[in-house]
Amino acid sequence: MCEPPSDGPVWRHFSGKWVSCFIPALFLAGLLFFTGCSNADSDSTETIDLDSLPVRIAEPVLSVNAIDTTLFAALYQLSVSLDDSSVIIADGIRKQVFQLNPDGTGRMVADVGRGPGEVQSVNTLVLDPDGYLHLYDRQNARVTKFDRHLTYKSEIKLESVGEDVLVREIYPTAEPDILLVVGTDWRYFNEIVNDRVQVIGLYSSQEGSYSDWLRIPYTRVSFTVIEEIVRAVHEIPYTPMTHIAMHHGGSSFFLYWPPSEEIVELSLSMDTLRVIQVPCLWSDSSIVNEIPY
After folding, report:
1. What mean pLDDT is predicted for residues 173-201?
2. How many helices (H) and strands (E) does the chain have?
């Protein structure tokens, strides 16, 4: 099994022009819609106009606190919208996954437990290119797959990456046995370093191994230290955070680090397919300098 990444360049296959600017995460959602209609078969650099990107705003749900007799406790921010306008949501306290219909009705998709189709935690909810739901459960260390009818189909047990890396997200790819995995390098916690780093790699379910690691900046953190022991770690608000999103076809993915003016599309072999120039929204350096990087 491939060892987790150690020291090395932060950007492995590409570099960008880093400037002090900040762009809302909403842009990335618009980018995916835009790039879904484009080809990315060769290296290219292009510039897109933010004002020209389509914006899709869903109808607001003003009040949802239960499905039938099931009262929600704490809904995660994770959700998946299906073609029938229903939404897959997860309750962090009840440790259950539900399908919520527009009229407020719904049903349980996954109950709490360790058996087939059951969950202990929900860290990723995502659809694959065929429309199947994938649920990553970090506590059970597995990825559970549901078909289009939200019926349990199969599961993949993930091997441990190593003590220095915690897998936080998974994304199915166009390759049936390959997952894109995103983890956090925990060495910043032991060394009390404010620069939190993510690692991105591929997981082969057939071989049970990881490969093609890439190290990228993630976000800034602060520490609560009591009697010289780190008791807690907190993300610093309003600081840049890396955004990662799969191409809808599952053969490539996008990376965006807000201080840069570039979004990079990478293949599953971690090669740069294209660089998309992003105009900076905040050009006033006096405003940027007030952000606690």
Report:
1. 90
2. 3, 20
